């Protein structure tokens, strides 16, 4: 029974090269994949690479506090991420923090103002019919609306918030007195009149009038509204429900602020299925925005455009209102019943893409308030990265010095194992950036530094088990094999506890702390791989060399230093030859 066991042990000892070859092949494959993908360095987080971090806090409307829940927060995160990525920011990070906060990290190299405008524009999107409009302050020369395309058309230019601008059309009256009378008539009529407007631009009074007090209040707000002032723009339409007419501001193609009276919302952002910026080469229209509506949205849009098409300017226009601001106000010539529409005008690529993003991703389930904006310069990020690398180098140097002093020749195995672990960690982190969006931040660097100690601890456990076997009088090769099962059990238990702690920390925390937990968990798994596929097989090979097997004083396995008597290999010979013992010899 002993012979087969010995044969199995000999077989196990004779094939450590397979494990070494396997881990070396894995390193070569990962390195090749890293260079093939073009990502030869780990992706850096905001705190190391520089960028902008925005903290948004969810704000519930009165009586709707229950709307702030996990489902709506997750939906908001998804929409914000798509909205920012729609600007070409493929490395942005959007994640929840706690119950009410969302953190948006935008890397350097991105137009942070444009990104902030896209992320901070968190109110719902509405399509409202235009009742009246004029350049804020009045007396301006009307701007002719662009010619209509086969669907819908509008006029748009880029503005500070990088959204599309409304058309600069105004009420067609020539004087402020006539214009005020037209506005009054429009307020008294239904916001989307079913009859044709008169030549003065006001609808007929045959529609159902609104309450006199509400009309007077809205007219007063419109008359007093000065959209050239930021404070007035911020308060325009405050408290208005989607079902109420309201006032709003927008910027026209000449850069002038324009004020509006808008009817109740006919279509909201959830009715828009998708929107895309398209450059029209066949029609010569240039950049346009193509919209597609949902089934219900198609019906609403067809009904609205059918009524608007019967009116004269500006009451044949609908305003696209986002966060209380008019971002575009295209006019309609005919009912659009196909479930899609095209907005054309003075778009460029940026303004068309911006409007398309707002239409596609503008309808958030919650409103958000910008709590803080932190900008980290590339220089500051570089300093933090340098400090982290220095700390890691110091920690690694201390571990190496300790191994050299205490384990001598065995430290060579430990150092090679650390290098293999570092190579695996680096290549995997480089590949995880484009794969799952992993970003190496400062806490993640701390996790990698802590992992140096965890990996070194596994080597120490195994080396000490081997030394214990030698102290008991065994030679090196049997000691290496007998020590492995005991060391393996201890290493697995220790790494399991570390990995469990990292997993729990990753689940219960948010933000940058997750980077620490993720790195700690990853390096703990790699520690198991390195010890099983590299450290143990390499020590098995080294045990066959004369330097280690003879117990050289610099091998780290010197019998005198370990308290055992040499030689390491014991020659077991029978005390007497086989056969009967001569009494005289006894």
Automatic annotation (TrEMBL):
Name the residues that span the membrane: 387-405, 412-432, 438-463, 491-510, 516-535
The biased composition feature labelled Low complexity covers 146-178, 190-216
| Entry GO terms, CC | plasma membrane
| Superkingdom per UniProt | Bacteria
In this chain, the stretch annotated as Disordered covers 135-217, 557-586
Stretches of the chain forming a coiled coil according to its record? none
Protein name in the entry? Protein translocase subunit SecD
Q: Which organism is it from?
A: Streptomyces sp. R11
């Amino acid at each position: 029974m002993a012979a087969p066991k010995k044969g199995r042990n000999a077989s196990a000892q004779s094939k450590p090269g397979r494990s070494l070859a396997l881990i070396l092949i894995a390193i070569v494959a990962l390195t090749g994949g890293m260079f093939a993908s073009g990502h030869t360095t780990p992706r850096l987080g905001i705190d190391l690479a520089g960028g902008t971090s925005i903290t948004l806090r969810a704000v519930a409307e009165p009586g709707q506090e229950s709307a702030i829940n996990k489902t709506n927060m997750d939906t908001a995160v998804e929409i914000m991420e798509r909205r920012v990525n729609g600007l070409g920011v493929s490395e942005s990070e959007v994640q929840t923090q706690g119950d009410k906060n969302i953190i948006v990290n935008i890397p350097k190299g991105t137009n942070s103002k444009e990104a902030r405008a896209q992320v901070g524009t968190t109110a719902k999107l509405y399509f409202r019919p235009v009742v009246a409009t004029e350049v804020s302050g009045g007396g301006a020369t009307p701007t002719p609306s662009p010619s209509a395309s086969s669907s819908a058309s509008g006029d748009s230019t880029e503005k500070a918030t990088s959204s599309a601008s409304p058309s600069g059309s105004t009420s067609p009256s020539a004087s402020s007195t006539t214009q005020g009378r037209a506005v009054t008539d429009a307020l008294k009529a239904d916001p989307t009149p079913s009859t044709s407007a008169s030549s003065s631009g006001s609808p007929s009074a045959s529609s159902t009038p609104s309450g006199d007090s509400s009309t007077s209040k809205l007219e007063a707000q419109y008359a007093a509204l000065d959209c050239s002032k930021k404070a007035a723009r911020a308060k325009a339409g405050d408290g208005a429900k989607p079902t109420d007419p309201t006032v709003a501001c927008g910027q026209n193609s000449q850069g002038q602020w324009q004020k509006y009276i808008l009817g109740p919302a006919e279509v909201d952002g959830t009715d828009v299925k998708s929107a895309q910026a398209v450059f029209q080469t066949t029609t010569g229209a240039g950049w346009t925005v193509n919209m597609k509506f949902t089934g219900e949205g198609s019906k609403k849009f067809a009904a609205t455009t059918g009524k608007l098409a019967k009116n004269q300017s500006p009451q044949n226009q609908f305003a696209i209102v986002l966060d209380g601001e008019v971002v575009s106000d295209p006019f309609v010539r005919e009912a659009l019943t196909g479930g899609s529409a095209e907005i054309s005008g003075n778009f460029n690529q940026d303004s068309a893409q911006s409007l398309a993003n707002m239409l596609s991703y503008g309808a958030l389930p919650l409103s958000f308030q910008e709590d803080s904006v932190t900008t980290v310069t590339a220089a500051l990020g570089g300093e933090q990265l340098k400090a982290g690398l220095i700390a890691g180098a110091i920690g690694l140097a201390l571990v190496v010095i300790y191994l050299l002093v205490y384990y001598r020749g065995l430290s060579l195995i430990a150092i090679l194992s650390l290098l293999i672990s570092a190579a695996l960690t680096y290549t995997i982190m480089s590949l995880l950036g484009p794969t799952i969006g992993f970003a190496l931040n400062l806490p993640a660097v701390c996790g990698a530094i802590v992992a140096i100690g965890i990996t070194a601890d596994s080597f120490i456990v195994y080396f000490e088990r081997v030394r214990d076997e030698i102290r008991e009088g065994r030679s090196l090769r049997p000691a290496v094999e007998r020590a492995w099962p005991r060391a393996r059990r201890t290493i697995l238990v220790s790494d399991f506890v570390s990995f469990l702690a990292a997993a729990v920390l990753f689940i219960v925390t948010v933000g940058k702390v997750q980077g620490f937990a993720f790195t700690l968990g990853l390096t703990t798994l790699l520690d198991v791989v390195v010890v099983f596929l590299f450290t143990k097989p390499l020590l098995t090979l080294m045990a066959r060399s004369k330097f280690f097997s003879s117990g050289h004083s610099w091998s780290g396995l010197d019998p005198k230093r370990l308290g055992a008597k040499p030689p390491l290999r014991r020659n077991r010979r029978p005390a007497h030859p086989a056969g009967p013992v001569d009494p005289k010899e006894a």
